[in-house]
Write a structure and sequence with these properties.
8 helices, 26% helix, 7-stranded mixed β-sheet
Length: 309
């Protein structure tokens, strides 16, 4: 097939790489505009653009796809399909209908569950045991199009959203190639989404960071996993806000939510259900991320101290 690829972040790169190495031809790549990154605000190209340029594929970064120039470029390529992976822009109807097979999206959830901006994080935050990738025929709604192919995968009890993102990016690449093969052989049977089971994965914000120690140990552990690597779960220790990077479910039992039960090399903290979590890695303000043993060498945390107060 002759393809146009639309994508921006790291998540989309495995799909683009897979297409480049396949029998298909990527005629052009559309990506978000370069943006300032880091303290020095260095203007930086998105990962998809960097990947495309390495393979000498033309890259376009229009502010909007609603202008005639963008549509002229797309139509001039005469693509069989437009592949969309975390592009980050709304596609107008003119673009949705610009290819023989329309626009095909790689979405990191089992639709209709987790439509929207942050499906991977919310899958981990909610403690799902299973997630996956849905290959979808795009329409004018937000992740509402017909399902073309689904690939499921279990979620590890300690797997972070960052780790799951990476796994799903490669699962999505394989699923995309399978779907294209099925399309070429008329073996795709689109399935309408059941809106009754839809839920929206709202954008992740810093306001989600503070840990509520009245929650269950499982929920606290999921928050730490789900908010990696941004914005990270946090709590107050001796009056100072500290990021919590890694936890594990503990077999210890406590009495008061937020209370330190053990402070020998690890910090074991009681949660609202009486069960505990072990804090394994954390980061004080202005310091580097470190294991708890190192943190305790420079910070006095006593048994019966209460976090979050």
């Amino acid at each position: 097939m002759k393809l146009i690829f639309m994508g921006t972040p790291d998540f989309a790169v495995p799909c683009l790489n897979k297409l480049i190495k396949s029998k298909h031809e990527v005629l052009a790549v559309f990506s978000r505009q370069d943006k300032p990154v880091g303290r020095k605000q260095v203007l930086t190209a998105p990962p998809v653009k960097i990947c495309a340029q390495k393979h000498n594929i033309p890259v376009y970064q229009p502010e909007s796809l609603k202008n005639s120039n963008a549509l002229d470029i797309i139509c001039g390529c005469n693509p069989d399909a437009i592949i969309v992976v975390a592009y980050g822009k709304i596609l107008p109807e003119s673009v949705l209908n610009a290819a023989k097979y329309g626009c095909i999206n790689v979405h990191a959830s089992l639709l209709p569950k987790y439509r929207g901006a942050a499906p991977v994080q919310w899958s981990v935050l909610n403690g799902d045991k299973e997630t996956g990738v849905t290959i979808m025929q795009m329409d004018e709604g937000i992740d509402t199009g017909d399902i073309l192919f689904v690939q499921k995968t279990p979620v590890g009890i300690n797997e972070t959203s960052e780790e799951l993102f990476e796994r799903l990016s490669f699962i999505g690449a394989d699923a995309l190639l399978t779907t294209l093969e099925m399309l070429e052989n008329d073996k795709v049977f689109p399935i309408k989404q059941n809106d009754d089971f839809a839920c929206y994965a709202k954008k992740i914000t810093r306001e989600l960071s503070p840990i509520d120690w009245n929650s269950s140990a499982f929920d606290v552990h999921n928050k730490v996993r789900g908010l990696q690597t941004w914005p990270c779960a946090s709590t107050v220790i001796n009056g100072k806000t500290v990021k919590i990077h890694k936890t594990a479910l503990s077999d210890k039992i406590g009495n008061k939510a937020g209370e330190v039960v053990d402070n020998k090399n690890i910090l074991t903290v009681c949660c609202g259900d009486g069960k505990c979590v072990d804090i394994l890695e954390l980061q004080a303000n202005g310091k580097k991320r470190m294991d708890t043993t190192s943190f305790l060498l420079g910070n006095n945390v006593e048994i019966s101290d209460v976090f979050g107060e």
